[in-house]
Every structure is written in structure tokens, then in C-alpha cells.
Amino acid sequence: MKKLTLSLAALLVSSTALYAQAADLVFTNASVLTMNDDAPTAQAVAVTGNQITYVGDVAGAEPLIGDNTEVLDLGGDTLLPGFVSGHDHIVASGWTSRGVSLFGIETLDEALAAIKEYADANPDEELILGYGFNQVAYGGWPTKEDLDSVVSDRPAFILDFTIHDVWMNSKAFEAGQVSPDEEDQVPGVMFWQRDSEGNQTGIGIEFQWAAAFRNAGAWDPAGEIPDIQKNLYDQAVKTGITAVHVPLMAMPTVTDLSLVKDDEKLALAHLHELEKNGELTIRTFVATGFKDPTATADEIVEHTLELREQYDSDMLRIWGIKIHPEGNWSSKTAWMLDDYADGSATRGAAAIEGPMITSVYLHANQNGLPVGTHVDGSQTVRNTVDAIMTARGAGYDVPNNLLHHYFWVSDQDHETVIENDIMVNTTPIFHVDWENQDVNALDLLGRAKVEAIFARYSSLMALGHNVSISSDVPSSPIDLIGPLLNVEIAMTLQDPLNPDSKPFPLSRKPASLEESLKAVTIYPAAQQAMEDKIGSIEVGKYADLVVLDQDITAVEPREISDIRVLGTLMDGRFTHRDGI
Which has the closest alpha carbon to 508: 528, 493, 518, 489? Predict the structure, then answer.
């Protein structure tokens, strides 16, 4: 009897080996960080088709190696789940980085010299475009007369470093068909800056300039979107990104819902064609944009549901709705609970206030659509948290409603977020001393508020709260899209681009490596309701993986952004491969 039992066992083992399907790809001798709490590390991973079919030790992977299996020995380097961006506008935002870059330029004179050099070198360009001007570094806002002094023969549109505000010369006002008495779209939020005599200074705040930009011929969606999308995705996959949440398309039609609808349909049709042809290199989850102060909740929800019927795959999906109710705190167009501390006697304002935010959450959540809201200001945080809790109170169970940015958050709202597991996305580089953000924060809100309510995302991460971290391209340049850059910032509270950067704010504690990596993998996957399919390395999940050139657990925090991505695997195929 004993002999028979042993024979049967031997037969079963040999049958398993005989009929086990050989993997297409095996990673071995790796430092695998799975982001799966039940089995956090491993040595080997096998991929068959578009799925992960083995996670474990090296010996266990050996039976899955067949004649046609590609075996990659990583020699102790790190294998991670593919990075999931929780907030990057990378489908159509490349129009924001054309022309002359002013990033890193710290004086107005230097900026003007750079613009003049570019204009002189490009005499055939009908428009002079640029991006990255920084009024904080310049000591104040520039004027159209400043810009006229270096470009007077052609329209010039120069975006600021947040991509919300534009600096225009006199020719741009003419080509944009802007009359001297043009009304502001929303006073205090979307407006033309004016001097004490009521004259336009040359600065359009919070997309007030968008119609002028289009009228001057600076936006051609049908002609531009395919090239923009390819360029941005090509750069993103090199940083290990395999999935992205696109929280509105970030096009210069964003404040007019009727125009937004057309542009969104155009961009989505392009992405769908790529999906059908097997050429979509990043899983793309899109939120429709709601920034038009004249639109209604019914209108945006109906539009979003119509698109969701067309685009609802694991490669291309309409996620829900993104509300963009205000501007940004650095230009005092974010709505605060209290006045800014610079003596201006304003607490900002919003184009979309509490009742409308609540209406959108209620109507969208009732239809199973999550909603994310741009919450720069503490008052907008309050309005959005109240809206989420109202929707929950109405019985609508949508766990992945989102707060985007999470800059200035009161104790009351911070506690509500913690107690009710409200998901958060933020951009770490906006909270540190990059582009003088620290100076601006202290000037506009004061040290007490900075230390009390600014950059509270790291305290959420310490609790294991669902927080995703990302770059918010194009409000930071595409070359800063790398998830590892955000991991480094979360772990150091310093700017990786500046060796002299100091931790900011002083009262915050850096996040751990584990929580920082979860914030670019499993947490944003859950925000997309995809945590059962991506975001961790587990058998049965999609084969979305990233290979690093060293063991990330042995790297100093201030060196993490220097780690190279050797390979990006999405849906079982390499979208980037360089060095393996």
C-alpha cells in the first residue's frame, strides 16, 4: 500500500511537470517587491500571455521555463508592479510645453532675454509660445509692456509654471480678439489682471485667456492630439508607468463644456483606435472635465455616462468626473476658509461652489460614477468633503471619490478624511521648495498655517491611508513625470533637482519607502477600482511590471530618483526596454 501511494505521488509530480504550461517570460534572481501584504517579497515572477502566472522563489519558477521562455536574470535588481499614475494630464496637454522654456530662470530680465533669443532664432513662427514663467521668482507679475519690449511683431503667449495663467503681449491681445473692456468669466477666479486705472496688464488668470489663445490660432486639436499623445506616452513609459488616471484632458477649451465635449470625443476616438490596433502603451482612465461655471450637474453626468458606454475596458475607460472649481493658491485664486496672510484682505473664490459640487457628487454617485475634485484651497476641501459625506449619507456607495492636491486642509476636514477613508491624490513637488513654492506658501499663508495645515499628505501615508502621489503634468514638466521622483520627495520632503534643497515644511515627517511605493502602485490602482487586476504582483493579475537597475531598498532616499528604469512591461509586453 505504501509503495502504491509513493508511485501515485511520483506519477502526479511528473504529470504536473509534463503538462504545466511553459511561461513566456521568467524574471529570476530578483528583489521582487510585490505590494501584496500577504507575500511582500519574492525572487521570481513568471508571465504567460498578459498575466502573472507565478510569484515565489527561484526553484519554483524553474519548471515553468520551456524552450521558448525568455529568462531574465536580474542579479538582485528590483522588480515592482507597474507604476500607476494617479494624476497626470498626458493625453492632450503637450500644447503647454511649446516654444521657450523659462523653468529655472529666476529674474524677469533673464526671462525676457530668453524669450528674445528664441523669437530672434525663429523668425518664421507666427506665434511666440513659451512656458514656465514664475512671478514669485521675478518679485511680481510681468506686464505686456515687458513682453512687448522683446517681441512686438508677433503675438506672444507665455504660460506660467502652473499652466493656469498666461502672460501676453499687445499683439496677443489683438490676435486673440480681446477688447479692453472684456468681462471676466468669474471675477476673482477667471479674470484679466488690471492696473489701478482698470487697464489690462497682460496677465490672464485661470484660463480667462483660453478663448484668446484659440482665436489666435494656437490650438488645433485634430492636428495636434495624435502627436502630443504619442510623445507624452513615450516619455511616460520610460519611467515605468503602465496605467494613468487622466483627471480631465487639460485642453484650452476647459472652461466651455460644449467645446470640451467635442475635444474629449476627438481624443478618446484616437485612444480607442490605438487600443484596437494594440498600440495603446498605457492603461488610460479618463475623468471628464467640469470647469464651466455655466454648466449643470445633469449635463456633465449625462455626457460622462454616454462616453462610459463607449469606453469601458481595462485598457481605456471613462472613470468618472473631475470638478475643477477654482484656481491655485499660488495666485490666490484658491478658496480658503480664512484670508490670505499677505494683507490683500481676500480668501480667494471659486467658480463652482459647495451646492454645485454636492449636486455633481449626488447625481454622479447615484449613477455609479466616482468624482474627483481639485481642492487647492481649504474652503474647497471643506465643500468637497461635505459633498462626499452627503452622497454617502444618501446611500451611494462609491468608495473611490477623490480629493486632488490636498494642499491646505483644516484639522476638521483632515480628521473626516481619515475617519471615513476618503481617498487622496497629491503632487509632492508642489509642497516643497521647487520653483519657490516654500517662499510663496510662507508669504501668502504665513508660517503658522504652513506648519499646521499645509502638505498633510505625509501624515495620511504614515497611517496607511490610501494616498496616491504623481506629477500633475503639465503643471510640472513632462520630464518630471517619473514616479520614482515622487517617491523620493515623499521620503525626503526635498526637491530632487536641487542638491541644496531643505526639507519643507518643517513640521512634516517623511513617508516610508513602503508607503511611498504603494502610493505609485496599489493605492492609485484602487482609486481606479482596478486593485484586483493591477497595482501588485500576484498570480492572475495583469502582467504590468517595472524593472529597476538596482535594489531600491539599498538606495539612499536622496538618490531614488536617479535609479534607472530598465524595463516597463504592460499587459505582458515591453513598452520600454533599455538594458535588459
Answer: 493
